[in-house]
Design brief:
By secondary structure, this protein is of the alpha+beta class. It has one domain. The chain has six helices and eight strands; from the N terminus they run H-H-E-E-H-E-H-E-H-E-E-E-E-H. The longest helix has 18 residues. The model has no long low-confidence stretch (mean pLDDT about 80).
Length: about 240
């Protein structure tokens, strides 16, 4: 909830400053600031927000933001409502149709490079924050269209020989109909990944890696092999 509230406040800041075109670094900085503000409003002691943080299983791969709630009382209950203690976020500023592969790579990083705790409730959450520029016609392709569809979305895509299925919940803000000189930005989306399934062949055998509330040794072995197989393609 802190991240979702910070997203809406971040959007208001970007809209007010719409005469200046943003970039991913600026979006990341504003989002970081708004997360801290939300945490202080709730009178919680501390949140650690890491900018450009290394993924635990991603070698030299970095996420845009890692948000860790400190002294968050009742986290074991909040986990049942998909409020995680540790949250990972990728940020994309979409300017043209070449962005689709970049978004797919971000999704795969979020799915594969985070080590899940072995417990009854989920403790780690994954987000994609996307902002699209004025000419958003390129967002009609399937990947980007799914990110800008409000509410619950099921999405499938292929990356090389890897098949991915994900369940998203999207929070969307878009300008009203009609063009004005101030509508530089044409849409904002915060997508939360609830479930995913990644399928590919490993040693000629179909293997499937799914997000589960409790990962078993076999799941972690498949995850390790998937990382080894596609790591060089996620730069």
């Amino acid at each position: 909830m802190i991240i979702e509230a910070a997203f809406f406040n971040m959007v208001m800041t970007l809209i007010r400053q719409s005469s200046e075109e943003p970039n991913e670094e600026r979006i990341r900085g504003i989002m970081l600031e708004k997360i801290y503000e939300q945490y202080q409003l709730l009178f919680w002691d501390k949140a650690n927000v890491f900018s450009q943080c290394k993924y635990p299983l991603g070698g030299n791969k970095w996420a845009d933001l890692k948000i860790v709630y400190q002294n968050l009382h009742g986290i074991e209950v909040l986990g049942n409502y998909d409020i995680g203690h540790e949250n990972w976020m990728e940020i994309k500023y979409l300017k043209d149709k070449s962005e689709e592969d970049k978004v797919k790579k971000d999704i795969l990083r979020l799915c594969l490079f985070i080590n899940e705790y072995q417990g009854p409730t989920r403790d780690k959450m994954r987000y994609i924050l996307t902002v699209k520029k004025q000419d958003g016609s390129f967002c009609k392709n399937d990947t980007l269209k799914k990110l800008f569809t409000p509410g619950k979305v099921k999405y499938k895509f292929k990356f090389n020989d890897i098949y991915v299925k994900i369940d998203l919940y999207n929070y969307i803000i878009s300008p009203s109909e009609g063009e004005t000189p101030f509508n530089v930005l044409k849409g904002f989306s915060l997508s939360k990944i609830f479930c995913f399934e990644i399928k590919t062949k490993i040693d000629t055998v179909d293997k499937v890696f799914k997000l589960k509330s409790r990962m078993e040794a076999e799941d972690l072995e498949i995850q390790r092999k998937l990382i080894s197989k596609i790591d060089e393609n996620l730069s």
